[in-house]
Amino acid sequence: MSANAIYRLLGPALFSTIVAAHGHISNVVINGVSYAGWDIGSYPYMATPPTVIAWGTPNTSNGFITPVGPDEYGSTDIICHKEATNAKGHAVVAAGDKVFLQWTPEWPSSHHGPIVTYLANCGTGGCETVDKTKLEFFKIDGVGLIDDSTPPGTWADDELIAQGSGWMVEIPPTIAPGNYVMRHELIALHSAGSAGGAQNYPQCFNLQITGSGTDKPAGVVGTSLYKSTDPGILIDIYQSLSTYVVPGPTLYSGAVSIKQATSAITASGTPVTGAGGAAPTGSTTKSTSTTLITVPTTSTKTTTTTKTTTTAAGGGGATQTVYGQCGGNGWTAPTACASGAACSSLNPYYSQCVPTGV
């Protein structure tokens, strides 16, 4: 029996015993400015977590949403993840600019599947208070099966892995200015040969889009994006596929197809909490040099990183507030803590300023 045949038989059972811990977006980079994502390792435990542009969730296991039970994809969890709550801030981006979404490291190479990105207009009230069930999403990016010469083939997630678990999306230049939620999602199909086997990893972010575009595309509410029987959801990727249909509504006509690339971080950004634009603040403690070769299916990246971690506040320079993040894999904002606090490492991805003597 072939390896693929064995996996088709045993794969779903094997993966059902594994803790659902695969990934989330750690930060978003816009024109070199990095905005922190929702840190599942600490923010759910805080009474008042930091203001970020990412929607919050009590999910602390990097888990997924899957079409099981009577609701299938009708559960509101599919919109922006489990029990997601509005981000309290937003970032500003111009129509036509590119947004780089950095996932946590080591997305599993076995979790083949598409990558899909949507926008939904929040209206004049802004995205910080919008009712997520009323958001109507239109697709601006969707990449699925790239090469099926040898099943299970090369998928969008393989490109993401080749780029250090990152994905680039262009904001369509024709989009009208306004407040939008970006919904970015990986869909893992390694167990999708049987009903309820697909795994969805939706992530949401608040953006204020500027520019002179006029398009206001019609969208679909999040709970109507997919059905468990969609051909791109219920599918056996271990057999040869002549075609693959990326799940979700039709791609917006003004969407721009781009070659994947990385984005160097030059500064850290502070989310906007009211009207007006965002600007980078402070300085970075991570220097990144990137050599990139972009082709339709692969990218090669060389990164040199130096990071300095300061455990107590020094003389000058930006400092982090008590209980704020001060370090971790990919962290580029201040690593020095305010007076009376020290930077303590909680895990490889997160260090926090805690009061000294505690």
TrEMBL record:
Ranges for region Disordered: 269-289
Predominant cellular place of this UniProt entry's protein: secreted
Compartments it resides in: Secreted
EC top class named in words: oxidoreductase
EC number of the protein: 1.14.99.56
Record's catalysed reaction(s): [(1->4)-beta-D-glucosyl]n+m + reduced acceptor + O2 = 4-dehydro-beta-D-glucosyl-[(1->4)-beta-D-glucosyl]n-1 + [(1->4)-beta-D-glucosyl]m + acceptor + H2O
GO molecular-function term, one example from the UniProt record: metal ion binding
Signal sequence coordinates: 1-21
Keyword line: Carbohydrate metabolism, Cellulose degradation, Copper, Disulfide bond, Metal-binding, Monooxygenase, Oxidoreductase, Polysaccharide degradation, Secreted, Signal
InterPro entries reported in the protein's UniProt record: AA9, AA9_LPMO, CBD, CBD_sf
Domain CBM1: 318-354
Listed Low complexity bias regions: 280-289
Gene3D superfamilies documented for this protein: 2.70.50.70
GO cellular component terms, A-Z: extracellular region
Domain of life: Eukaryota
One of the GO biological process terms: cellulose catabolic process
Essential cofactor(s): Cu(2+)
Family: Belongs to the polysaccharide monooxygenase AA9 family.
Protein task: Lytic polysaccharide monooxygenase (LMPO) that depolymerizes crystalline and amorphous polysaccharides via the oxidation of scissile alpha- or beta-(1-4)-glycosidic bonds, yielding C1 and/or C4 oxidation products. Catalysis by LPMOs requires the reduction of the active-site copper from Cu(II) to Cu(I) by a reducing agent and H(2)O(2) or O(2) as a cosubstrate.
Domain notes: Has a modular structure: an endo-beta-1,4-glucanase catalytic module at the N-terminus, a linker rich in serines and threonines, and a C-terminal carbohydrate-binding module (CBM).
Protein name: AA9 family lytic polysaccharide monooxygenase
Phylogenetic classification of the source organism: Eukaryota, Fungi, Dikarya, Ascomycota, Pezizomycotina
